[in-house]
Recover the amino acids of this structure.
């Protein structure tokens, strides 16, 4: 069943911030799965093909760029590292955030965070944060380019920085920020039959998001929200 495209706004909303009810995203029913869309071919997921895609990008439009705001604060710039680890099968590096963090605690996320005044670019921010969070040395990451910014409901304007990561990298997760570090096959994430739509309405507030649940051995990794939205945009970029 095909779902209607998510509503995309091109500017920061000026409505009063929303007060979101408590909910567990894992329990929200699936409204649609995109089995009608083609997967990105494996040939397009090789290091050389990914490099070439950023050298000569196609005309394309991101599908989701702005979530409904629920934070009563000024927007803040941030960057994340969409790191593709070059194993026998390309893998995407993801973290599970620790439960005590003030924003997005316990959620699956890319390494990354808020930009510092000293950062010279989103790539600088993403690589600095990746080193601080998971111990990834910048010399082991080959930045290919960036995707369009994504504004979260918590008022972070995030630039996803796509990079190829050496399989020889040694990771040392920061236990204060990272509860777990894991990898998901890029092919799995670039196959829309694994992209699920959700709609949640309560108290006059409606939210929409993607999820991409992945069974990692005995662990169930629930990729959703901003992380899934940025991966969906990456799919649109690679399949354009």
């Amino acid at each position: 069943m095909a779902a209607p495209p998510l509503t995309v706004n091109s500017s920061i909303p000026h409505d009063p911030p929303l007060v979101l009810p408590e909910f567990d995203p894992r329990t929200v029913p699936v409204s649609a799965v995109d089995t009608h869309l083609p997967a990105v071919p494996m040939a397009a997921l090789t290091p050389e093909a990914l490099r070439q895609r950023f050298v000569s990008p196609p005309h394309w439009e991101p599908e989701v760029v702005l979530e409904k705001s629920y934070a009563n604060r000024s927007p803040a710039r941030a960057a994340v590292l969409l790191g593709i680890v070059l194993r026998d099968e390309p893998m995407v590096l993801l973290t599970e955030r620790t439960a005590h963090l003030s924003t997005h605690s316990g959620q699956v996320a890319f390494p990354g965070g808020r930009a510092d005044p000293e950062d010279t670019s989103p790539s600088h921010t993403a690589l600095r944060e990746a080193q601080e969070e998971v111990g990834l040395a910048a010399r082991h990451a080959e930045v290919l380019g960036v995707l369009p910014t994504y504004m979260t409901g918590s008022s972070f304007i995030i630039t996803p920085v796509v990079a190829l990561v050496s399989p020889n990298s040694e990771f040392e997760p920061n236990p204060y920020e990272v509860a777990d570090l894991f990898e998901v096959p890029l092919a799995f994430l670039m196959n829309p039959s694994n992209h699920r739509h959700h709609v949640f309405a309560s108290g006059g507030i409606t939210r929409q998001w993607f999820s991409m649940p992945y069974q990692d051995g005995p662990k169930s990794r629930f990729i959703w929200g901003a992380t899934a939205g940025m991966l969906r945009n990456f799919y649109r970029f690679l399949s354009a």
Observations:
- The radius of gyration is 17 Å.
- The first helix runs from residue 47 to 55.
- The chain is about 15% helix and 30% strand.
